[in-house]
Amino acid sequence: MARVTVDKENHLPVDIHYEDRGSGRPVVLIHGWPLSVGQWEFQIPDLLAAGHRVVAYDCRGFGVSAKPRGGYDPDTLAADLHMLLEHLDLREATLVGFSSGACTAVRYLSRFGNQRVSRLALVSAAGPYLRRTDAHPEGFLEDTKLREYQRCLTDDRVSFLHRFATKFFEVARSSAARPVMPQPLHTRVVMLAAAASHRGAIQTLVQAVTTDYRNDLRAITVPTLVVHGEADVVLPVEATGARIAEAVADSRLVRMQGAPHGLIVTRAAEFNRELLAHLEG
């Protein structure tokens, strides 16, 4: 099992687990909350078949990476990614961030620049700023809802994750598509999520909601693909993907009709075609 030390806590190493397969121009996959590298099982084979080197890792607190008490802020998560890219000496890489993983990719580029990165793909992405305040009425998540999520994660984490997995495949009522909820895949998402650190899950969720990434997005200069489901009930496209694409100068927005948050699973073939076209563009 490949691991790299990115930090220390109480004199003990904080290691993150990663997978590194294939050769060619690298593609770095950054999973979303509260999942792990297992979420990419429908993408990795196609990327390898197309001749890419594929690097996927478990963020701290998730999967089989270390689960420290701290370090779940955007800057530290971006620094973890930076240390991984440095460790593997990746160049001309494409970062692919899903959901909250998009936030890590965006903060990485704004903080460390594009010396090692040539392209970016943001999928079902969180951001630019999810929190609704008097100064930011465009946000769609109020503090009361965030506190409810925190309470549910504390009181009965597994039940909350089961409901999250349902929404992962659920489509908005306004969509003409039928709800997509294959039970085996639903169970798979719950299993991936259940491996997450309790503290890491709560802190990462809070950071994703309360951090303003608008300035980070304006700093991005690499060609960027934004893919979002029109029927996403977790992160509605008008409040997230559409605004992200507006903020990034060199971007292309793909709105998948009838697709839920978990489009990398339910619409894997369609998404993979868009991603491969972006990589070859």
From TrEMBL:
- Single Gene Ontology MF annotation: hydrolase activity
Supply the Pfam families for this chain.
Abhydrolase_1
AB hydrolase-1 domain location is 26-265
| Superkingdom of the organism of origin | Bacteria
Gene3D superfamilies for the chain: alpha/beta hydrolase
Q: Which cellular components does GO assign to this protein?
A: membrane
Please provide the record's keywords in A-Z order: Hydrolase
Please report the name of this protein according to its UniProt entry: Alpha/beta hydrolase fold protein
Which species is this UniProt entry from? Catenulispora acidiphila (strain DSM 44928 / JCM 14897 / NBRC 102108 / NRRL B-24433 / ID139908)
